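Tutorial, part two.
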Amino acid sequence: MIAKIISIALIIFLLFRLLFSLKNKWGLSVKIKRHLAYILPIAELFVWIGYLIWAVRLIYLSQNYFTLAAVGIVLLVLCIPLYLLLRDFIVGNVLKMQNKVNEGVFIEIEEIKGRIKRAGYFRLDIEDNRGNINSIPYNHIRSKIISQYGINQNLAKVVLRFTFPDTTKVNYIVPLLKRQILNTPWAAVSQDPIVEKTKTENGKLIIEVGTYTLDKSYGENIKNCVDKQFSLSYYQK
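Running the prediction step on this input gives:
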């Protein structure tokens, strides 16, 4: 019985880790990824609650009261930490559904200003322009004013130059290029990249894209990351 309970818990854990991993690897739009970012955690929470009820019922029906008492003691000891985690989890998902704490967005919460590096289950990681990470529990910011940066609020615009074979179709490559740029951790997803210029020169298609980021120094990181993704897709610069 114990082996069965542990095995099912392991399957549930690995299944959701796989789903979260596939969410980031699938070629999904930013909007769909945002929705999945709060739907999957809620689904996992309900699955674990159902699993806990099932496991306790199974132990009770087996009349293994010693194990049942041990589980009860563990839950009693963990009730306060679990309450705090559940509170941050619920507040975090409410903020995500309100589109206030999406990953990659540049925000300001009182004296903290920067890009949301990670919107986790219980905490929000904000990276400032010096690369420092501020990790804040969601419950601490639920009553704070959260300001999302607009196009003219501390976002730097960099023009990146990408080169492809001249046989590449512009209508095909531009949406793909924009998506790859937004998928990098340095680009501001709140502002769509803008194609500044396209031209053919020396047998190459050259596309210049205006991209918004927290600091112009991130431009090289964005370009290198996108170039690497296209090189893996058999594009030659």
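DSSP finds six helices and eight strands in the chain. In part three we will examine how such features are distributed along the chain.
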